[in-house]
Amino acid sequence: MSLYKKLFLLFCFHLAILAYVPDSFAAKPSAETLYQNARSDYYSLLASHSRIQKRREWLGVIGKFNIVSKNHRKTKRGADALYTQGLIYENMYKRFNVSSDGKKAVQVFLDVTKKYPSSPLVDDAERHIGDISFMQRKDRNAAKRYSTVHKRSRAKTGGVNTSTQKSPGVRITNITRFSHDGYSRFVIHLSGKTAFRANRLTKPDRVFVDFLLASPGGRVSKTSFFKSGLVKSIRFGKSYKSTRVVFDLKKNAYHSITPLSNPYRLVVDFGLKPPSGKSVSARKSKPPRNRNRRVASIAPVTGGRAIKTIVIDAGHGGRDPGAIGARGMKEKDVTLALAKKLRARLQRKLRCKIVLTRDRDKTLALDDRTVLANSVNADLFISIHTNSSKNRRARGIETYFLSPARSQDELETAARENMIANFSENPADNDIAYIMSDMANSQKINESVMLARKVQKAMVKGVSPVANTRDKGVKQAMFYVLWRAEMPSILVEANFISNRYEEKLLRNGKYLDRLAESISNGVMEYVSSYQVAMKK
Hints:
The chain is of the alpha/beta class. The chain is built from 14 helices and 18 strands. The protein folds into three domains: 31-156, Tetratricopeptide repeat domain (Serine Threonine Protein Phosphatase 5, Tetratricopeptide repeat), CATH 1.25.40.10; 170-271, Immunoglobulin-like; 301-535, 3-Layer(aba) Sandwich (Aminopeptidase). A hairpin with a 2-residue loop joins strand 7 (231-239) and strand 8.
């Protein structure tokens, strides 16, 4: 046998061996890849109106995290995956009210404390066990869990109390109120995380929230009365190891409660229509027929009703200048000028009511902007901003709708616009709370996406003949100013004020005229689309 033939047979032999190599020797996805895939599916679940209703979908996501926690137990992602399973079971317990989900959540969080005793997730796991216990009115066990975390924290700091309290509790440091006719928002600010539970009572109509191991701070009034809004008073009560905050209602309004982190606070909303995507039976009376009917030659419709009111939000203002250009131009000035120009054009084209969240240079909290839009029963909400970047070459126009960010750029833009809300340095910290409380209304999301696409396309088409700008497309992120808006809502980032060329454009009144005209054209395109849809 020739040498070449021997080499050829040897080569074939090696190929045969490689063909039968067991799968265990093949490259496997890393713990990080598996974890990120599971996390992505979790976010997809929360953003899907159809999937979020099905318990099996939640269990399917848990299964993906379970693969990571079982096969990569000794890695950091093993701990993260196990902890996230606890979070999902806890969210399932709140949503479906299945007792076994609550038990499973507690068991998973206990496993985190036992399997990963040195992990920073241990304290959070203990708190979640306390949260579930408090919801189940097992107050002693809840207090024990939070006390354990407090003692461990004191031990880590050498016995030094890092708060102003010796007791293992938190202070209610402030209660802020944002109110307009037909809509009120209260934000209860806390010095740290604690368990809470809420309930509603009638005769008289009131909502109360119990906070575990909490007490009102010295500057918080024990009783407050209000002449306007849906809540006539707030008062404090005391029960076993907890403080009760009672909202006495003027009217039989709907309410919703959402906890947010960094800093810890509880958002309590009251309105005359149900929160997005939730079936609540608090208010029995039906709205009068044809309440949105108006006399006009144009009857634009959205979601089955006429567009009667549009709210335009001029971003930033007053003490908050927003982004500042290289030549000193302030975002708050550009947004106000553009908002006024847009108002004039929409009033002329649609002949409907246009409301500005601010018509002068004044400080306005992000909460108050959405509250205003909800209180006037707005049909569209458009928030106007200019973009900014550390990269001075960055330029272009983009339009956002409310949904979890997918890229670092989206995260950074949301973090900058959310800054006034005192968010944490990690812009994704509040995503889950946002999604759970606001993403269930799929129709509102779909309409927001359509509005964003129409406006983005019209802006690019309108300014391209006179400006060398860039189409950065339609994007998504969790903007606090869009959160809990009860109508289709978008956030426009009109050029980069940090770019010298685009800052110069924004100084030009004629360019702003063209930009305002373009946005109004996009709104009209959106309206026309729904007119056609409603005729079919």
